[in-house]
Amino acid sequence: MDSGARGMVTAGVTAVVLLLAGCPDKVAAKAFNSCQWGKKHFQELDHAAAQREFDNALEAKPNYTGARIGRALVHDSYSRYEEAIAELNLAAQRSPKSPQVLQTRACMHEHAGNATQAQEDEDAAKALAPDMKPEHRCDKRWMFDLKFDFCQVKGE
Prior knowledge:
2 domains
């Protein structure tokens, strides 16, 4: 089983366990599961399916920072940079100290040609997480490898 499939099984099992255990936050489990499926679809370059899953996650939990990052990545894949930045602005309101949000927004600004804003967000992300890994840099490989699990980003 490859790592992507293993991650989806883990996410599904986690969601089922939370639901069966009577977890008081069943909505969070549903949102997390949708975000994980969105991430899987995005990695497979099925952006329409990814968009649906991120939308499902946000319908269940409107302030879910991880799903906002996912939607921003989908917007970016369609070169809809302003929409991507708007999603990340919403995520930053909920998670102002999230280096993942700031670094992802820096990438979107870079893709949109906003060099000054990109540098400001990248500097802020580095200040919060000086050990941020190179895979969080702005390149297309980062966009598709997704070495960090944005579905785990807290901020609610």
